[in-house]
Backbone:
């Protein structure tokens, strides 16, 4: 599945409008980094991609199985270590007040790893740039 987004940054530090199809979101930097804190910063957007894709992937599977799990919470903590050129995503999944058996949890753990964004982030990544 191909995706195309366009980010436009004018003169207001670091307020950026990002358009994907008919949808727009705002990214920015926190005030302490010179921005206006009017939107998610780029690292938050990256973590959001993993969290939202994981939740959606789990929802598809849970619904297909007919399980009564009304709430899926996915928290992602992203730590970037530029000195070692590594990043670590810590993903925590819970199902609110719903008790889930260990057998179902084990299955959902595997399904979470099948999320398309998870697969992209754990594969080799190549970035091609043209100016």
Residues:
């Amino acid at each position: 599945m191909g995706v195309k987004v366009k980010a436009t940054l004018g003169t207001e530090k670091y307020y950026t409008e990002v358009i994907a199809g008919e949808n727009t979101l705002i990214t920015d930097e926190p005030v302490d980094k010179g921005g206006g804190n009017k939107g998610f910063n780029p690292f938050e957007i990256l973590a959001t991609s993993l969290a939202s894709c994981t939740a959606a992937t789990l929802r598809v599977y849970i619904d297909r199985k007919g399980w009564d799990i009304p709430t899926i919470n996915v928290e992602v903590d992203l730590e970037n270590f530029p000195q070692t050129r590594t990043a670590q995503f810590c993903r925590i999944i819970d199902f609110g007040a719903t008790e889930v058996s260990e057998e179902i949890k084990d299955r959902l753990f595997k399904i979470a790893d099948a999320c398309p964004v998870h697969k992209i982030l754990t594969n080799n990544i190549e970035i091609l740039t043209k100016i």
User: Anything to note?
Assistant: The CA atoms of residues 9 and 122 lie 30 Å apart. The chain has a mean pLDDT of 96.
